[in-house]
Structures are given as structure tokens and as C-alpha cells.
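Researcher: Checking consistency across runs. Here is Protein SirB again:
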Amino acid sequence: MYYTIKHFHVTCVVLSAAGFLLRGLWMFTGNPLLQRRLTRVLPHVIDSLLLLSAIGLATMIGQYPFAAGWVTAKVFGLIAYILLGTVALKRGRTPAVRATAFAGALMVYAWIVSIAITKNMAGFLA
């Protein structure tokens, strides 16, 4: 069961990142597809499944935030990613602010993935 959930989780990670990249591209190019209902709803579905599978995996392996440093780092990284993503796709007042937040969100995403791979709270920063 663990490997099934882990593969599902990794699939959600890839889908979430691909969706964020696509929505960022559409935002910067002014593509009207960004306003479609599916574009607004599907990321929330994928991210919810991603979070649920993460909770399931953490429970299965007995690694929890504030008990395992690398899991804690991923949670704080997730919060930063969400905040930066919100600025990048919705709340940024200028294109420069949005672009900076978008780049920051992608860097945080890469850092979170590197933590997951290395099980080290510094990830690629180590």
C-alpha cells in the first residue's frame, strides 16, 4: 500500500508543478484559458489529493512535522510555495512582482522536492 500511495503522491507532485507552470505561462501571455472553470478548480483538486497522500505517507512511515526535521522543512516550504504562488498568479500588482514571485515559487518547489529526495532539511542547499 505504501508504494501505491507514494507513486500517487509523486504523480500529484508532477501534475501540480505542471499545472502551476502552465497557469504561469497563461498568465504571462494573457491566455483566456486561465479564466476557464477547469483551470480554476483542477489545481485545488490535485493539491488536495497531494496533501492527503502526504499525510497518509507521513502516518505510514511515522515521520511528522516538528518530530522529523525534513518533514518540518517541507511543511514550511509548502507554506512559502503557496504564498509565493498566490502572489504570482493572483495577488501580484505588477508583472515584475508576479514574475519574481513565480520564480521564487519554482525555486521553493525545487527545494521541497530536493528535501523529499535527500530526507535532509537543507535539501539542495546543503
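Researcher: Does this match what you'd expect to see?
Model: One thing to look at in this run: The chain is about 80% helix and 0% strand.
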